[in-house]
Design brief:
By secondary structure, the protein is an alpha/beta fold. Helix 11 links the parallel strand 10 and strand 11. Helix 1 runs parallel beside helix 5, helix 4 packs antiparallel against helix 5 and helix 5 packs antiparallel against helix 8.
């Protein structure tokens, strides 16, 4: 068994996702850490958010991180052997360093909290309206790609993430994405707006790079127990110091998730589990690598189910 762990990004959250984390006895320490980071009881904070507020950048990043820390704690106890690699998508790349043992839970939550605040500060300073992201699906001919590139340039929209199969995640202030969607050169395009309120992985967030790098350096990430895939280029990272370059960079540079999938294939991973929430990365991985079997933590009701699935594929 060669297991890969996938750490999800934003947009898959829902109110119910923290139900177990906020009540389970084995998550008490995580709740205490999260409460300390935000300066109030984490259960009261989360339950007091309305449906729109759970998608606000700072709320979403902290909640998704807490969810994944609990998911990894649950999963790690079931593993007969360590994973061979971990890859994180956007926010998930920070969490991936925790999964690999380079950051503890408290450090991870503090860094994510700081990361979100720094991102939001860039947004307030550089854009007059709400920023957004969108997924542009579908393969394109060379002529279509040229027309799309011209449309992106006309409307000042950036490519934030290159995904498998030619799909692109775009980022820009909302008004620019509105104009792009109405452009005749994109007529009929499969363009889906995402519930992410900041233009991640673009130059709009350049102001967050240096201060986040300083915060990360203060945590002194340790040697990971297994490699972490770098989002910006798909490279394997085997030293804690590698994170000091890759994690700040990915705030303001586009991600090559397509390259990350190629790296997972090169690592000969044959099983993968996505921490969630959601299963988008698991589905992408199975499409990209026919010989891999991927599942999300939400596919399993109990730790026994996880252990049984792993045993059947050992």
């Amino acid at each position: 068994m060669r297991l890969a762990i996938l750490c999800s990004g934003q947009a898959g959250q829902c109110h119910a996702m923290l139900d177990r984390v906020l009540s389970a006895p084995d998550c008490a320490e995580l709740r205490d850490i999260a409460s300390s980071v935000i300066g109030r009881d984490v259960a009261a904070w989360w339950r007091g958010l309305d449906e729109a507020a759970i998608y606000a950048n700072a709320n979403a990043q902290l909640a998704i991180t807490l969810y994944q820390l609990a998911a990894w704690q649950r999963l790690a106890a079931c593993l007969p052997q360590p994973p061979v690699v971990v890859a994180g998508y956007s926010l998930g790349e920070v969490i991936a360093w925790h999964v690999a043992g380079a950051l503890d839970a408290a450090e991870t939550l503090r860094l994510v909290h700081a990361r979100a605040r720094l991102m939001d500060a860039c947004l307030a300073a550089s854009t007059p309206d709400r920023s957004c992201m969108a997924l542009l699906r579908g393969r394109a001919t060379p002529a279509m790609r040229q027309a799309r590139a011209a449309a992106l340039a006309r409307h000042g929209v950036a490519v934030a993430i290159h995904r498998q199969g030619g799909d692109l995640v775009l980022a820009a202030p909302a008004a620019r994405l509105d104009a792009l969607a109405a452009d005749p050169d994109l007529a009929g395009a499969d363009l889906k707006r995402l519930a992410v309120g900041v233009p991640s992985h673009t130059a709009w967030l350049a102001g967050a790079v240096a201060p986040f790098g300083e915060a990360l350096a203060a945590s002194a990430p340790r040697m990971p127990r297994f490699p972490v895939v770098a989002g910006v280029d798909g490279a394997l990272q085997r030293h804690g110091s590698d994170s000091l370059t890759s994690l700040p960079r990915q705030l303001a540079e586009p991600l090559r998730w397509d390259g990350c999938l190629e790296t997972l294939d090169a690592m000969r991973a044959d099983l993968a589990i996505e921490l969630g929430p959601g299963n988008d990365l698991a589905r992408q991985l199975e499409l990209a690598i026919p010989d891999i079997t991927a599942r999300a933590m939400s596919d399993f009701a109990t730790p026994d189910d996880i252990a049984g699935w792993l045993a059947r594929h050992a």
